[in-house]
Amino acid sequence: MAKTNLYVIRHGKTMFNTMGRAQGWSDTPLTPEGERGIQALGIGLRESGLDFNHAYSSDSGRAIQTMGIILDELGLKDQIPHQFEKRIREWCFGSFDGAYGSELFHGVIPRLYHITNYKDLSLEDLVNGIYQVDTAGWAETWEAVSHRILEGFTAIAKAVEVQGGGNALVVSHSWTIQTLICLLQAKANLNLPLPNGSVSLLEYEDGQFTVRSIGDASYRQIGEAIQKD
């Protein structure tokens, strides 16, 4: 049986990313720049010679759109099924979903914890802070969000493994990917480099994940160089 590798991709740049709005369970499409960046990623993955036999994304529109572009560039859109997994959605920001990120991260959260920089918090404290200030009752606790994310990615890895392993494309979201990696590495930091269209490689074997790379932008850069030619 081949090893199971998850190529976990952050979706392309969206309208809300560009506007600086908190984009959790709310959704906006990729911008033309975002589409071009993901096309470059698809080209880079194609040029790498990697074979992919599985495709998963969250059920958010921006993740679905991203996967569609990648599969098109790889020539796999009609070759492998694209499956949706809602457990790998982004964090829900509750009543702050769609609000300006600066209001939440540089205003409300620092005031709640009496700090200057929200990045001084652990992921757990940040999630629980969002839960506290959410007036809509939609945001999740750390226990809930960490459980669903780990459960979702584990379910994907097991499904790929059962089908013989190999390489799977998985499109998810910045905070979700950061949460997963921090859980796997028993770290709490808020500073993982995860640009749009970056790839984090996770290996799954004997029921355990191993993080092989984080936020790798090289595939996209290869594609961008080809786009310029």
Automatic annotation (TrEMBL):
Species for this entry: Streptococcus lactarius
Transmembrane intervals: none
Protein residues bound to substrate: R10, H11, G12, K13, T14, M15, F16, N17, R62
Residue numbers annotated as active site: H11 (tele-phosphohistidine intermediate), E90 (proton donor/acceptor)
Name the UniProt record assigns to this protein: Histidine phosphatase family protein
SUPFAM superfamilies in the record: Phosphoglycerate mutase-like (SSF53254)
Pfam families registered for this protein in UniProt: His_Phos_1
One MF term in the entry's GO annotations: phosphatase activity
PANTHER family per UniProt: BROAD-SPECIFICITY PHOSPHATASE YOR283W-RELATED, PHOSPHOGLYCERATE MUTASE 2 PARALOG
Cited CDD domains: HP_PGM_like (cd07067)
A GO term from the CC aspect: cytoplasm
UniProt xrefs under InterPro entries: His_Pase_superF_clade-1, His_PPase_superfam, PGM_Phosphatase
